[in-house]
Design a protein that fits this description.
The complex is a heterodimer of chains A (about 60) and B (about 475). Chain A is mainly α. Chain A has a domain at about 5-50. Chain A has helices spanning about 1-25, 30-50. Chain A starts with a helix and ends in a 14-residue tail after the last helix. Chain B is mostly helical and about 475 residues long. Chain B has one domain: Hydantoin permease, CATH 1.10.4160. In chain B, about 70% of the residues lie in helices and about 0% in strands. Chain B contains 20 helices and no strands. The radius of gyration of chain B is 23 Å and the shape is globular. Chain B starts with about 25 loop residues before the first helix and ends with a helix. Classes of the chains: A mainly alpha (about 60), B mainly alpha (about 475). The interface of A and B includes residues 20, 29, 51 and 55 of A.
Chain lengths: ~60, ~475
């Protein structure tokens, strides 16, 4: 479980970090796009495996 | 009764939440962290730039507006929620009567459908990008977009309606998982947009922003969106949730008043960071287009700037952006359609929830086919607050003032009435006046209407005063709680 959480955390960080590196001109836009989609896939594979199935009581509420 | 159909988050819908079910502040912070990262944020954020807001006004105006919104949740909603520990619907039923709640529910349902329609449009812009289908906003408010875009809206809305008819749980689980990722993608889009504009300092950002505004104005955009307009919009775009007391349903579980600060996390992630990020996406799109001389997707047929959330997200972060716009739109349209279905089922109790949800989905899809609904989201959201917000004033007066003025609180329960005319008139009169000011030109300003968010607080105050005065006139002696209990 802890390992899965770490994977999710790293995936989440990987969605933002490349954009910071793009801002500092360390990586190019193409790299950002690839890392973002790969880390997105990792997030959606890993996170449901550990995130509790308990629903937030506000999830049926309308939001703007 | 209407609110029996509101059961979904489930428990204590018709009784005060008991002590053992109360939750600590941590739960509320966790809950609100995933709120307000909706599909509409992609649209609203870029509309600020499209309306001519200056960067400084946006940064400071959203800051102040969001602080005011959080204070409203903390000091207006939380004390009443903790004092009564009942849902908005159950409190209204006790004050206004079941028939009045049904009427309120119908209005809710229609507005939910329109809101969901805007979310369908936003998701459709993202689906349209890989298909090469442009999103354009026609000059006439009641005109469809292109045939291809309308077809995409029909497919997206249809899928959303069918999934919503199956219940909200599955999508809610997706929303649970997606919430932190969506917030991260919003932040990434903002940072990437800064990089695309070659921003290296606040000065260079301001320069790029002003160039964006000049471009918008050159192409027939709004002339200005001043500081106080931004403050009022940020404060009152959630008017239905705080002034309108819809979030009583959430805060009735609060053990501690400090839980009332929790909306801050949702507001500052969704209605601050995400809005600014979305605005930066449009600024970057304008700058890159100016440099390349390619304005495809940025300008309408009539040469006006159009905020296309799907295209902006695609340009910023590619397929991830497309996915984010679709998921953000879908996960927020789903509960909206679901709740609209419940509201309609309240009017026709013998109908099935599935049928009514499909009906609500169909209405939302038709609404989504009118691109102006999403393009005018700043006005629609203000109208939404103006219509639903004032009902919160009835709750406020009932909680704080009725007994002080020698009147009966929860009057419908005491009088065994299903329709309290004082509530109907106190709510209906200010809202009708508000809608006239919003939609009829020339009443306040020459050849213009009132910005809807400006009317939330005046209508709320008018409703409170009217409810007190009308109750004084219409209330007759009613049995006390003790006598009611004895009977």
């Amino acid at each position: 479980m802890a390992a899965l959480k770490l994977v999710s955390l790293l995936a989440l960080a990987a969605t933002i970090l490349p954009s910071v590196l793009f801002l500092t001109q360390t990586v190019n836009h193409e790299t950002v796009l690839w890392v973002a989609i790969i880390s997105t896939i990792v997030w959606f594979v890993a996170t449901p495996l550990w995130m509790g199935s308990e629903l937030r009581p506000d999830l049926d509420q309308v939001e703007i | 009764m209407a609110d029996e159909n509101q059961a979904s988050s489930g428990e204590y819908e018709r009784e005060p939440v008991p002590e053992h079910a109360l939750k600590g502040p941590g739960k509320f912070w966790g809950m609100y962290a995933g709120e307000h990262a909706a599909g509409t944020e992609f649209m609203i954020g870029s509309l600020f730039l499209g309306a001519g807001a200056s960067l400084q006004d946006l940064i400071l105006g959203l800051l102040l507006g969001n602080i005011l919104a959080v204070l409203t949740w903390r000091y207006l909603v939380t004390p009443i929620a903790m004092g009564k520990r009942m849902t908005l619907y159950y409190q209204l039923e006790r004050i206004a009567g079941g028939s009045m709640v049904k009427l309120y529910n119908v209005v809710n349902g229609v507005l939910f459908c329109l809101l969901a329609g805007a979310m369908v449009t936003v998701s459709a812009t993202a689906v349209g990008v890989p298909l090469g289908i442009d999103f354009s906003v026609p000059g006439s408010a009641l005109a469809f977009g292109s045939m291809n875009f309308t077809l995409v809206v029909v497919v997206v809305g249809g899928v959303m309606a069918v999934i919503a008819a199956a219940g909200y749980e599955m999508v809610a689980r997706v929303a649970n998982v997606a919430a932190p990722w969506m917030i991260a993608i919003f932040a990434a889009c903002g940072l990437i947009s800064l990089a695309r504009m070659n921003v290296s300092s606040y000065g260079s950002l301001q320069e790029a922003w002003e160039s964006g505004i000049a471009f918008v104005r050159d192409h027939g955009g709004e002339t200005e969106f001043p500081f106080w307009q931004i403050v009022v919009f940020a404060w009152l775009c959630n008017g239905a949730m705080h002034f309108g007391m819809a979030d009583l349903s959430i805060f009735r579980f609060a053990r501690d008043k400090s839980s009332g600060w929790a909306p801050a996390i949702g507001m500052f992630l969704g209605h601050y960071m995400a809005w600014i990020a979305a605005a930066l996406m449009l600024a970057a799109a304008i700058k890159v287009s100016q440099q390349s001389g390619e304005f495809g997707g940025l300008l309408n047929g009539d040469n006006k700037v159009v905020a296309n959330p799907g295209l902006l997200a695609w340009q910023a972060i590619g397929w991830t952006g497309i996915l984010c716009v679709i998921i953000a739109g879908w996960t927020t349209a789903n509960p909206t359609i679901y709740r609209a279905g419940l509201a309609f089922q309240g009017i026709f109790p013998s109908s099935s929830r599935v049928t009514m949800t499909l009906l609500a989905g169909a209405v939302a899809t038709i609404a989504g086919a009118f691109p102006n609904l999403a393009a005018e989201l700043l006005n629609f959201v203000g109208t939404y607050g103006t219509v639903l917000g004032p009902m919160g004033a009835v709750i406020f007066v009932d909680f704080y003032l009725m007994r002080k003025f020698g009147l009966s609180d929860e009057y419908a329960t005491h009088a065994k009435s299903s329709f309290n005319p004082a509530v109907f008139l106190a709510w209906g009169i200010p809202v009708t006046v508000g809608l006239i000011l919003i939609y009829v030109k020339g009443i306040v300003y020459q050849n213009a209407t009132v910005f809807p968010a400006y009317l939330v607080v005046p209508c709320w105050i008018a409703c409170a005063v009217l409810y007190l005065v009308l109750s004084k006139i219409t209330q007759r002696p009613v049995p006390s709680y003790d006598k009611l209990a004895a009977n």
